[in-house]
Amino acid sequence: MKKKILIVDDDPHHNQIVGDLLRAEGYDVEIAMDSPSAVHKNFDFKPDLVLLDIMMPRFDGTTACQALRELRPDLPIVIVSAKDAPADIVEGMDWGATRYITKPFDHLHLLETVKELLERDPSGGGTEG
Fold first, then answer.
1. Each residue of 40-50: b (16+ CB within 10 Å) or e?
2. pLDDT single digits (tens) 31-58
């Protein structure tokens, strides 16, 4: 069965590129253009992993990150953001992100991160690093 990835970003160009990249690797991909849609798609699509932008209209990605973390504590959430200051990264992890990747990013690094998080044993109890 294909693993499901939810991309949450308000940039259609970014969504197309990342979506195509992940589909080429065999993943089932859905797109949400804002935080409320991301939380809604959690119930319908039931993703195995979320790629989440922070800077979006209406509610920023922190809202989605915190809500998704409350609903599904073991769901891997990777923040993918142009905010690259160390304080931004620490803050993203404090919101409940599993990983933080800064834009622009290397496609291979993104794929490796996705694969690693999807293959890990959620009951293993190890810390991410």
1. ebbeebebbbb
2. 999 989 999 999 999 999 999 999 887 7
Which of 17-26, 61-70, 75-84, 119-128 is least confident?
119-128
**Summary mean pLDDT of the chain:** 90
What residues contact 4, with CB distance under 8 A and at least 6 apart?
27, 28, 29, 30, 45, 46, 47, 48, 49
Residues 6+ positions from 11 with CB-CB distance below 8 Å: 53
Q: How far apart are the first and last CA of the chain?
A: 28
Question: Do residues 22 and 64 touch, judged by C-beta distance below 8 A?
Answer: no
Q: Are strands 77-81 and 99-102 parallel, antiparallel or unpaired?
A: parallel
Whether the Cβ atoms of residue 33 and residue 57 lie closer than 8 Å to each other:
no
